[in-house]
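Researcher: I'd like a candidate sequence for this fold, 267 residues long. If you have to choose between options at a position, lean toward the conservative one.
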């Protein structure tokens, strides 16, 4: 069972009563942030509280325009900044987030006892793997495994390099909330591209019958064949010879024109 609370701030916002009071529902609870009642240039989700009985697990997240700023995990009990540089401009006491999660847990227990809950459908996640920047062999890069349409928010993402498990250079975001009540989670792998290494992002989720492997390998241009090289060289030589011939003709014509002018003399 999952319980989620969200509060939202933004510029040029028009808030209705439902948003001000908050909307609670069993399985997933969310105020209508991002709905038709809100007009905003920028939206900050300040304190997305997520708690679920499985585990149990929970997280408190701050987002800005859909990007995670920091989160507090129920297990780690500390503030984790998405980009460490952000911590230089502000701070957040994780105890406040833990108190919020304790309240959400308490409310979830009450609602579970009072209402006849129905298990939610396990959605099938969508997985995409791509590199952060164009790949050049031997140049450091980052692989990104984006797992979308996650519900419930319980997923295991791991990396494989040529079939071997990889743990070094791996990092991931918390669960990022979406307006349709599903979640996104992104895993990163820093690596050194080589022609011999291939990579897989392995995703385990209740919506999958078996772990999903999303394959990735560097796209290396095929080497030019000997015939192609010969044709290219021949074309280049032909173009060069034509240029020499045409240039010689123009030079001869120019010399003849100058000579003819000298023979005619002044009028």
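Model: Candidate sequence:
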């Amino acid at each position: 069972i999952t319980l989620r609370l969200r509060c939202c701030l933004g510029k040029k916002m028009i808030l209705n009563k439902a948003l001000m009071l908050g909307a609670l529902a069993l399985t997933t609870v969310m105020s209508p942030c991002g709905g038709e009642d809100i007009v905003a240039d920028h939206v900050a989700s300040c304190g997305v509280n997520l708690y679920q009985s499985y585990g149990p697990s929970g997280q408190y997240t701050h987002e800005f325009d859909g990007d995670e700023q920091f989160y507090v995990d129920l297990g780690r009990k500390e503030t984790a900044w998405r980009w460490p540089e952000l911590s230089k401009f502000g701070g957040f006491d994780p105890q406040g987030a833990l108190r919020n999660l304790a309240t959400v847990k308490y409310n979830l227990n009450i609602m579970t006892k009072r209402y006849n809950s129905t298990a939610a459908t396990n959605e099938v996640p969508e997985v995409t793997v791509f590199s952060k920047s164009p790949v050049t062999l031997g140049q450091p890069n980052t692989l990104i495994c984006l797992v979308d349409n996650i519900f419930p928010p319980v997923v295991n993402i791991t990396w494989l390099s040529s079939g071997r498990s990889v743990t070094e250079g791996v990092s991931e975001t918390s669960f990022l909330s979406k307006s349709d009540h599903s979640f996104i989670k992104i895993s990163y792998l820093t690596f050194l591209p080589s022609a011999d290494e291939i990579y897989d992002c392995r995703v385990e989720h209740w919506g999958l019958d078996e772990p999903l492997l999303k394959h990735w390998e560097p796209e290396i241009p095929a080497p030019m064949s000997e015939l192609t090289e010969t044709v290219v060289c021949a074309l280049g030589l032909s173009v060069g010879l034509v240029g020499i011939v045409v240039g010689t003709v123009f030079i001869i014509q120019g010399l003849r024109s100058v000579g003819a002018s000298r023979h005619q003399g002044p009028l």
